[in-house]
Specification:
The complex is a heterotrimer of chains A (402), B (311) and C (333).
Chain A (H helix, E strand, L loop, with lengths): L1 H8 L1 H31 L4 H14 L1 H26 L7 H18 L5 H4 L6 H32 L3 H20 L43 H18 L1 H11 L1 H6 L4 H28 L8 H5 L2 H11 L4 H25 L3 H29 L22
Helix pairs in contact in A: 2-3, 2-16, 3-4, 3-15, 4-9, 4-12, 4-14, 4-15, 5-7, 5-8, 5-12, 5-14, 7-8, 7-12, 9-10, 9-15, 10-12, 14-15, 15-16
Chain B lengths: L1 H32 L7 H19 L2 H25 L4 H23 L23 H5 L4 H19 L1 H11 L1 H6 L4 H27 L11 H11 L4 H18 L2 H8 L5 H19 L19
Helix pairs in contact in B: 1-6, 1-9, 1-10, 1-11, 2-3, 2-4, 2-9, 2-10, 3-4, 3-9, 6-7, 7-9, 10-11, 11-13
Chain C lengths: L3 H16 L15 E6 L9 H16 L3 E6 L5 H14 L4 E5 L4 H10 L5 E4 L10 E6 L1 H15 L4 E6 L4 H17 L4 E6 L6 H13 L4 E4 L5 H10 L3 E6 L10 E7 L2 H12 L7 E4 L6 E5 L7 H16 L8
Parallel strand pairs in C: 1-2, 1-3, 3-4, 4-5, 5-11, 6-7, 6-8, 8-9, 9-10
Antiparallel strand pairs in C: 10-12
The chains are: A mainly alpha (402), B mainly alpha (311), C alpha/beta (333).
């Protein structure tokens, strides 16, 4: 315990921490300042706008719940990104993997339109509920992993760059969703209508992830997906730093060639990394359906369902230092920003596009401020950085050659 | 023959569809060859598209429109270069930032100025003497607007610059081995600034080709993600201008073909779900790459910031 | 690890924000005399299509009712989950007499919110389902009717006997319009080919434009389409010169005054007015509305600048009258 305290609270660390916080605040502040000028140019009151941003994200119990709800899919995707990027795989296919994961989860959930007799006979409290939810989540994970796996196989065995294949696979997943929701998965109530809406039936109560009612005395949308995400962060942390599999994935991410000399099957680790990453994104899609929307519906676009979590999750993971635990606060930070930004639009009636601009500015400013931290820590550091320190974004290694 | 007309119109359509991809992908090729990944292409395209549209909307001067797109694109390239070269920020993430910024700002400016989608007089289709009237060939090759020809002309020019000039050699050296390039007296930062700014300018032009040449209108998110496809096509083309063009043409040809599916269906009495038709270009692109399987090594220093004496 | 610097401050920042004292919204009592409406829309409020149709209706009511009416909106909310946040916020604030979710993709949200806030009145569309709750109104447009009339005119005006349609995804309002359009064409002449192309996107202007090009290459001389991305298709029709366009959802004449023949325009204000008077008399929901030609919610707005022959206009007006009094009937596929 004391060792832990010492690790985090010796003076130089403390000074670094203070510096870091000030710089992060400065970066966010600078971005918001530019935003303020823009808001002012639009004849709106910047002070009122930023008050709305804070209130919208943290002001009430409900807004806090919504911030966490927004953070949940970012967390799942972000955790997956940690594994992929550590393994040297740039997975920008989170959107598609979310969609496929959600499709599989909702399909399994809907296939239990009644509780099977054998489940009820098992003398564990609430067993059918636990079983069905678990099965649906598992389906989401596996489907997401499989979708990511396509890009993994293409990269490992066919030399197809994963940025290309995942961008393409996102579009393919979207069309698959549109097709299935307007076809075999279509709500039976919609089938005979000329102007049918492409959505599935609503899942049964026993297939839903429970809402976290202890969070507040009034109902919020906060659901158990958040808890699963937190647990997953710990699991993936252990996987990456306490298991052989994690060691191999990270080794491949750092140096392809060295790993090969060390006897690691590079192709298999590349595949492993993207399988896990895709699975996490698949879970993100699954919890959105099982915990939040209770049915799947499409407006024809990927973002309509994912809310761009497949991309925002990457940002969250990188801000979290590509560390599963670090991704937790980073996801909440971005969840808050996204939720609060909407509240600006409602309260001050500025166009939604201003908010998108503002989000872009925050990302740019925060990521740019990193250099100053790097310089400061370098100047302060008494010892040179350890040679084993992983790069924050692993180098895109050369294509595997035969 | 109706089939001839369809074939000609598909080819013509493919050439039009490929134009913005060629601009943007060539630009991205320059950046990536020197070691900088710019994921913000779509955002730059949008701002370029708006700048060109607004200039033409106000003045009616098409050249001013092109100039506006080039300048705006170059400025955003400068910003991107500053972020990723000088500040050494992570390139993937700052690219997403630039994308969001461009997506938001282009719509915001549009809402505050023109507001509703209003058509403008863009680049007219060129009528070449004799050539345009040729059967089939005339429609395919000689009935496009100026920017389409500029895009295709840029392919050999880019290839020449990258492979046959000192500047091209510097670009490749900086992307392959920045330490060695630095030792040879090449300024890594200067080269990267130049390539990313060229990339920005071409992304701006890609946007302009949509807003003042092909569509002659602006709407929020006009590009609908084309910038991301353009980045993917750079990988498809393995950082070589001609192959990049090939990728753009392949993708666009399948896209043009799938738009004809409904007509073919009526003629043959079959029914292909539109979802699968729309999916086709993406599937074909991936499958082609599997069989082409070029296994070309990417620029070694791609996405890696350079700092003298670091490694 | 180089990135640890971000980790700790982020944790700290988030924890501080989460445990900071919350300001509970003081629920201001609704002002007796002002009727307050909040609406969430999927695209821009001036998209010349679906969202604008609602925005225009609210603006019209605002002009009519003056100080006794007020509305706020959140536009561009294509992310369904974001709409849920706005709708819940408005519902729990207790400040709004009516909360509108303008998009069929928002249905699941209303389904969840309505029982949770039984004192708040919700309206959503386009759909007919009030989910059995007595605080939910549903509204839709019989867009097949105007589609039919547009189709009749298109069939009369085509010389090549080929007509092209550019649609988003084959569902909902767009499908209803397109199916009505096809029925209208067939009513005049079943031999005319109607090629329908759903491009699977509400936003891809470039693809919509190329889809129009493809139709024209296949001989179409009349085009129509639904949703906000069709501005690209209108542009193509205009550039080609001899191709006509029929508008849907909002009046699209200004996009191409030379070639737009007629538009089906939605007037949600007739629904909204009834909802408002119901709420004012204490009924919070339970009704499902349909805009039709008969109730004036759907209007065919001709483009005065286009010289429509007396005969063609006569037939179109007869079709409108026939649909209204039930003498013209058709079946949708």
């Amino acid at each position: 315990m004391m060792a832990f305290v010492h690790r985090f609270f010796d003076t130089s660390k403390l000074i670094n921490l203070v510096l870091n916080i000030s710089l992060l605040l400065l970066a966010v502040g600078a971005a918001l300042l530019v935003g303020a000028v823009m808001i002012w140019l639009m004849d709106a009151d910047p002070v009122k706008a930023y008050q709305a941003l804070y209130e919208g994200a943290f002001g009430t119990t409900n807004s806090r719940a919504e911030t966490l709800v927004k953070a949940t899919p970012l967390l799942f995707v972000g955790i997956g990104i940690c594994v992929a990027f550590r393994g040297g795989v740039v997975n920008v296919g989170g959107e598609g993997q979310m969609i496929i994961g959600a499709l599989a989860a909702v399909w399994v959930a809907l296939s239990f339109d009644t509780v099977p007799r054998f489940l009820e006979n098992i003398p564990i409290h609430d067993f059918p509920h636990i079983f069905i939810v678990t099965a649906s989540l598992l389906a989401g994970f596996l489907a997401g992993a499989a979708w990511g796996g396509i890009a993994g196989v293409l990269k490992a065995y066919f030399g197809v760059n994963e940025i290309l294949s995942t961008i393409m696979l996102n579009q393919i997943a979207l069309q698959l969703m549109n097709y299935l929701l307007n076809g075999v998965l279509l709500d039976p109530d919609q089938k005979d209508r000329v102007n049918r809406i492409p959505k599935t039936a609503r899942i049964q109560d026993y297939a839903k992830l429970p809402r976290l009612e202890w969070f507040s005395d009034t109902p919020t949308r906060l659901h158990a997906g958040l808890i699963i995400g937190l647990a997953l962060a710990v699991v993936v942390y252990i996987l990456l730093w306490r298991t052989t599999l994690g060691y191999r994935i990270r080794a491949v991410g750092q140096s392809n060639r060295a790993s090969r000399y060390a006897g690691i099957n590079v192709k298999r680790q590349v595949l492993n990394a993207i399988l896990i990453s895709g699975g996490c994104a698949g879970l993100a899609g699954a919890v959105q359906v099982l915990g939040l929307q209770y049915r799947m519906q499409t407006d024809g676009s990927a973002a309509g369902f994912t809310g761009n979590a497949g991309f925002n999750g990457i940002v969250a993971a990188l801000f979290g230092g590509l560390h599963p635990i670090g991704t937790i606060p980073a996801s909440v930070f971005f969840g808050a920003l996204l939720i609060g930004a909407q509240s600006i639009q409602r309260e001050v009636q500025v166009p939604a596009s201003l908010i998108t601009t503002l989000n872009g500015l925050v990302v740019i400013f925060v990521v740019s401020s990193q250099i100053f931290i790097k310089r400061l820590t370098k100047r302060r550091a008494s010892v040179p950085p350890q040679p084993t320190t992983p790069k924050s974004v692993p180098a895109l290694q050369e294509e595997p050659t035969q | 023959m109706i089939t001839d007309i369809i074939k000609a119109s598909v080819a013509a359509s493919a050439i039009r569809l490929a134009t913005p991809y060629i601009f943007a992908s060539l630009g991205e090729t320059f950046g990536q060859r020197s070691g900088v990944l710019n994921l913000g292409v779509d955002g730059i395209m949008l701002l370029g598209a708006f700048a060109a549209y607004y200039a033409v909307f106000e003045t009616g001067n098409l050249l001013l429109g092109v100039l506006a797109a080039l300048i705006v694109g170059m400025l955003l390239g400068l910003a991107m270069a500053f972020i990723s070269v000088t500040l050494q920020a992570e390139q993937g993430i700052s690219g997403i930032g630039v994308y969001l910024f461009g997506l938001g700002l282009s719509e915001l400016l549009f809402q505050k100025t023109v507001s509703t989608p209003t058509p403008i007089e863009g680049f007219p289709r060129i009528n070449f003497p004799v050539l345009t009237d040729l059967p089939v060939l005339g429609e395919i090759f000689f009935h496009h607007n100026l920017l389409v020809y500029v895009a295709f002309a840029l392919v050999p020019i880019s290839s020449f610059i990258l492979n046959r000039t000192t500047f091209g050699l510097q670009i490749r050296a900086v992307g392959q081995n920045p330490e060695a390039a630095d030792a040879m007296g090449i300024s890594v930062a200067r080269v990267r600034y130049m390539t990313v700014m060229i990339g920005g300018a071409l992304a701006g032009l890609a946007g302009a080709s949509l807003s003042i040449a092909l569509l002659n209108i602006f709407q929020s998110n006009l590009t609908a993600g084309q910038g991301f496809i353009a980045v993917a096509l750079v990988y498809f083309g393995a950082w070589r201008p001609y192959w990049v063009m090939g990728g753009a043409l392949l993708f666009s040809t399948v896209n043009a073909l799938q738009l004809q599916v409904k007509t073919i269906e009526n003629a043959l009495g079959i029914n292909v779900p539109s979802e699968f038709a729309v999916m086709a270009p993406y599937v074909v692109t991936i499958i082609t790459l599997i069989f082409a399987s070029k296994r070309v090594e990417q620029p070694t220093a791609l996405t890696k910031p350079f700092e003298r004496g670091e490694s | 690890m180089r990135k640890k610097w971000l980790l700790l401050p982020l944790i700290l920042l988030v924890v501080v924000a989460l445990v900071a004292p919350s300001h509970h919204h003081t629920r201001s009592a609704k002002a007796q005399d002002t009727f307050k409406v909040a609406v969430v829309m999927p695209s821009a409020s001036n998209d010349l299509a679906f969202s604008q149709s609602m925005f225009d209706a609210l603006t019209a009511i605002d002009a009519e009712m003056g100080d006794s009416f007020e509305f706020v909106f959140q536009e561009g909310t294509f992310v369904v989950d974001d709409a849920a946040v706005a709708l819940r916020e408005w519902a729990s604030s207790g400040e709004y007499n009516l909360i509108i979710a303008h998009g069929s993709q928002y249905g699941a949200i209303i389904e969840e919110l309505a029982p949770e806030f039984p004192d708040v009145s919700f309206a959503w569309g386009t759909d007919v389902d009030t989910f059995g709750y007595d605080n939910v109104f549903a509204y839709e447009a019989a867009s097949d009717q105007g589609g039919f009339v547009n189709g009749v005119l298109a069939a009369l005006l085509t010389k090549s006997d080929v007509i092209g349609v550019v649609g988003p995804i084959e569902v909902g309002d767009a499908k209803l319009y397109v199916d009505g359009f096809k029925a209208g064409v067939a009513w005049v002449n079943p031999e005319i080919a109607v090629n329908v192309n759903y491009i699977q996107s509400f936003s891809d202007v470039a693809l919509a434009s190329e889809a129009a090009q493809a139709h024209i290459a296949n001989g179409a001389d009349v085009l129509t389409g639904s949703a906000q991305m069709v501005v690209g298709a209108v542009g193509v029709a205009k550039e080609t010169g001899n191709v006509l366009w029929f508008g849907q959802q909002s009046n699209q004449t200004e996009l191409a005054p030379e070639i737009v023949v007629a538009n089906q325009v939605y007037h949600w204000e007739i629904v909204l007015k009834d909802i408002i008077s119901q709420i004012q008399s204490g009924t919070l929901g339970g009704t499902s509305y349909t805009l039709t030609l008969a109730n004036g919610g759907l209007v065919i707005e001709y483009n005065d600048a286009y010289a429509l022959s007396g005969f063609d206009k006569f037939v179109a007006d007869a079709a409108i009258q026939g649909i209204i009094d039930g003498t013209v009937t058709y079946t949708l596929e």
